[in-house]
Amino acid sequence: MSAIGSPFSTIIRVDRSVSAHYPRWVKRVIHHDTERAGPPVYHLGGVHCWLHEQQSYQEGVSGVRIYIRLRETEIFRDCLSLRDGEEICPKGAKAFRSHFGPRTVVLWKSLVERHDGEQFVPFMYELLDAVNIDWCPIRSPFFAHYPAARFLR
Question: Do 30 and 111 touch, CB atoms closer than 8 A?
Answer without folding.
Answer: yes
